[in-house]
Amino acid sequence: MIEESDSIEDAQSQLKRADHLLYVTLKYTRTVDVIKSIIKRFISAFDHSVEEMLEKSKDKKRIKTIPKSPIEKIELIKKIVKTKEMRDYIKFYYLLRTIDKATFKPREEYRKHVTLITPKHEVDVEKVKEFYEKTKEFVGFSHEFKGR
After folding, report:
1. How is the chain split into domains, by residue range?
2. DSSP 68
3. Is 124 exposed, middle or buried (0-12, 13-18, 19+ CB in 10 A)?
4. Rounded to whole angstroms, how far apart are CA atoms 139 and 49?
5. What does the radius of gyration of the chain's CA atoms come to, in whole angstroms?
6. Domain 4-144: assigned CATH number
7. Are residues 11 and 48 in contact, defined by beta-carbon separation less than 8 angstroms?
8. Predicted local confidence at residue 145, as pLDDT
9. What is d(CA 98, CA 68) in angstroms, rounded to the nearest whole number?
């Protein structure tokens, strides 16, 4: 069983790594592999944050068990927290997973406007920065979650 403080620390640790990848590594290497790595860190931060929220809900006796798979966890948290804000975060999480799983190709790799191209999405540095802010918001949201 994961301690809730470990989950939030792990989520924050993933955000720190993503921050470094975004503002240091990507600045100098400009490859889509770095963008993919950053997206994986965002997904991991989400997973740890959702784990923390489920732990709090379990402590408050709202749920009996915590599922093993990330998708089942997200679906369960969707049932627990029925706010528009949470629905938006879940849509965002699914977007990140879709981008991560999709086949991709680079555009302007090693240049200022490096972009990861998937069949449905284009992810450039500015988009990654937006993703970073949204992920930070969610980690803060999950940390303040009281298990209602």
Report:
1. 4-144
2. S
3. middle
4. 6
5. 16
6. 1.20.120
7. yes
8. 86
9. 20
Mapped onto helix, strand or coil, the DSSP state of residue 18 is: helix
pTM (global) more than 0.85: yes
Neighbours of 112 (CB within 10 A): 8
pLDDT of residue 5: 58
| DSSP E strands, the chain | 105-107, 115-117, 122-124
Number of residues assigned to the chain: 148
Query: How far is Cα 146 from Cα 142, in angstroms, rounded to an integer?
Result: 9
pLDDT of 8 reads 80
**pLDDT by 10s per residue, the chain, length 148:** 444 457 788 999 999 999 999 999 999 999 999 999 999 999 999 999 999 999 999 988 889 999 999 999 999 999 999 999 999 999 999 999 999 999 999 999 999 999 999 999 999 999 999 999 999 999 999 988 876 5
For the sheet with 115-117, list strands across it: 105-107, 115-117, 122-124
Task: Please count the CA atoms within 13 angstroms of the CA of 23 that sit on its side-chain side.
Answer: 10
Residue type, 97: R
- Kindly report the backbone phi and psi dihedral angles of residue 124, in degrees, each rounded to the nearest multiple of 5, phi listed first: -105, -175
Q: Which residue has the tokens 């999709």?
A: 102
